[in-house]
Amino acid sequence: VNPVIVAIDGPSGTGKSSTSRAVADKLGLRYLDTGAMYRAITWWMLSNGVDVNDPVAVADQAGKPTLVSGTDPTAPTITVDGLDAAGPIRTQEVTAAVSAVSAVPEVRARLVELQRAAVATATDGIVVEGRDIGTTVLPAAGVKIFLTASAEARAARRSGELNGSVSVAATQAALIQRDAADSSRVASPLAKAADAIEVDTTELTLTQVIENIVALVEEKR
Ligand code: C5P
């Protein structure tokens, strides 16, 4: 059998990460979280005093950090210059800055190269989650999924992950702003590939979403 490549794209708060990890684990595939890579390079920029709102400065530094992603779906890891970035990339500071950094073409070119290299080494196949995987990074992926959910459902889920430390209304406003930035940027925006299967998760449990996607992949394998 050919290694199956599964692209899972969609806006924030649709359950992409939980879904992608579980699908990879159930099918014995590797797992790559490309959002974590954009967050990691953003964290490095902030830590090194780069003005994240200056695309020229960001482009200039884009080649500097060394990023390494571990692709075990049960324990994904990410390091930047050898430092564990898993915790720091989830802060609100990084979340607020990541859309500006990820809009810079030099950043995308660098990370897309790393993403394709990770896929090339995944001889048993891989699930890759992000925003532009089906459209730009892996246009030949065997299975393409576009996950959606209502803005209310997405905000409620994300606010649950933050243990209620931020109000649902504030979370929803931040999500909408980030998705608008990600969808309207010039360099490979968040978009559904023409041949992607859209799965609306608003009324589905996580288990149902996982089972639907596992079935879709098994059909294609
Ligand atoms: O998936 P996550 O919310 O962690 O992604 C963080 C950010 O990384 C997104 O808001 C987007 O700006 C960027 N991103 C991207 N392309 C991808 C994955 C993530 O631009 N393939």
Automatic annotation (TrEMBL):
SUPFAM superfamilies this protein is in? P-loop containing nucleoside triphosphate hydrolases (SSF52540)
Could you name the Gene Ontology cellular component terms for this entry?
Answer: cytosol
EC main group: transferase
Protein residues bound to ATP:
G10, P11, S12, G13, T14, G15, K16, S17, S18
> Keywords of this protein's UniProt record, alphabetized?
ATP-binding, Cytoplasm, Kinase, Nucleotide-binding, Transferase
Major localization class = cytoplasm
Q: Which reaction does it catalyse?
A: dCMP + ATP = dCDP + ADP; CMP + ATP = CDP + ADP
Family matches, as Pfam families = Cytidylate_kin (PF02224)
Q: Where does the record place it?
A: Cytoplasm
Source species, domain of life: Bacteria
Q: Which GO terms describe its biological process?
A: nucleobase-containing small molecule interconversion; pyrimidine nucleotide metabolic process
Iron as UniProt keyword:
no
The record's GO molecular-function terms, alphabetically, read: ATP binding; CMP kinase activity; dCMP kinase activity
The record places domain Cytidylate kinase at 6-218
Does the entry feature the keyword Nucleotide-binding, yes or no? yes
EC number, UniProt record: 2.7.4.25
Family to which the UniProt record says this protein belongs:
Belongs to the cytidylate kinase family. Type 1 subfamily.
Q: Which PANTHER family match?
A: CYTIDYLATE KINASE, CYTIDYLATE KINASE/PANTOATE-BETA-ALANINE LIGASE
Q: In its UniProt entry, what is this protein called?
A: Cytidylate kinase
Protein source organism = Actinacidiphila rubida
Gene symbol of the encoding locus: cmk
